Amino acid sequence: MNVQLAVDEADAAPISKSAIADGDIHPVRKSRTDLHPFLSERWRQHLEMFGPLPRQGSQSGQAYPKGQPNGGRLDAWPPGGGRPGSDLGFLRRQLLDEHNICFGVMNVTGENGQYCQNQDLGAALCRAINEWQVAEWTSQEPRLKASIVVPYENAPAAVAEIEHWAAHPDFVQVMFQSRSAEPFGQRRYWPIYEAAARARLPIGVHAFGFGGYPITGGGWPSYYIEETVGHAQACINLLTSMVVEGVFERFPTLKLVLIESGFGWLPSLAWRLDKIWKRLKQETPHLRRSPSEYIREHVWLTTQPMEEPENIAHLLQTIEWIGWDRLLFATDYPHWDFDDPARVLPGNITAAHREQFMLGNALALYQRK
């Protein structure tokens, strides 16, 4: 359920009696200069003079809405200054302590180096972001874990970044963003999957990013609602590509987490893929099983934004098809469409399913139990 919360810090107490895991937390830099300690003089000067030219050159900052920077909750602005998500102490009180979160996965989106036209700059920014995550976040708060931000359009650099951090206990997955230069099943990305599988790290694909193309198959949208409802479009396309191109057949231990894309669309996609695949098997002899079998074995999804039908039974039927063991609760903190763990599930869920949903699945996926 999407809510805005007004938290009185003096009265703050855990809402959830049981410890929970959060699959999508967004730490934010207070300013661009926060990365300077982790960048060489060359790149500091480059950023000062030229800036980080993205693949969509005309885009600056968040696409929508301009009046709410970083999509932040109104109550998530730290009292001491800075943007929502930029103050560890405030995040600790408002999110981790308030909701009894024992394990939180950070995903650094925005200006993170993943879609720079200058690939050397992109690789340098990704390394700096990862060093910043450790120095400013995970080393200061053991409940927080990080995603390795990789320049996925530059496979050799992405592989090097995975190999650099793979053994570090504070990193639990490899992070992409969903809008890419080519569909993620293409061979150019396979070395990254091989490195992630070798390191036993899931690939987490977060919604958004800038691939250099309009964000819908028919061009640029007019309204913010089109952007928010369209979260899933890129994930539908990339998942179809990865399945059909044989990524999961080639890398049988690879795990994929689709982040902030919803999940209500998955059953119908799998049904459609299975139906057409049965008629066109000859085209893809490398697939030894139906598309839905690969999806059920290799794919997890975070729950924010959660679809909320008027008839709650429809939501539960969708979850039953996907599997209670495949969904990871996420708040999307500090964004305006934050999901409150105390309100996200109806009250008639079994204790076993609730525990899986809120904690167990994340701990199992990220090998924390």
The CATH superfamily title: Metal-dependent hydrolases
Give the CATH class: Alpha Beta
What is the percent of helical residues?
A: 25-40%
Strand segment count: 8
As for the CATH topology, it is TIM Barrel
- The strands making up the biggest β-sheet line up spatially as 1-2-3-4-5-6-7-8
Please state the overall shape, judged from the principal axes of the Cα atoms.
globular
Number of helices: 12
Biggest beta-sheet profile: 8 strands, parallel
- C-alpha end-to-end distance: 28 Å
- H and E string: EHHEHEHEHEHHHEHHEHEH
* Poorly predicted runs of 5 or more residues: 1-16
What is the arithmetic mean of pLDDT? 90
Salient structural properties:
369 residues; single chain; TIM Barrel; 8-stranded parallel sheet; alpha/beta
Notes on the protein architecture:
There is one protein chain. The protein is an alpha/beta fold. The protein is built from twelve helices and eight strands. It has helices at 41-50, 88-97, 119-138, 155-165, 190-198, 224-229, 231-245, 247-250, 266-279, 291-298, 312-322, 351-365; strands at residues 20-25, 101-106, 144-149, 171-177, 203-206, 256-259, 299-302, 327-328. Helix 4 runs parallel beside helix 5 (190-198). It is globular, with a radius of gyration of 20 Å.
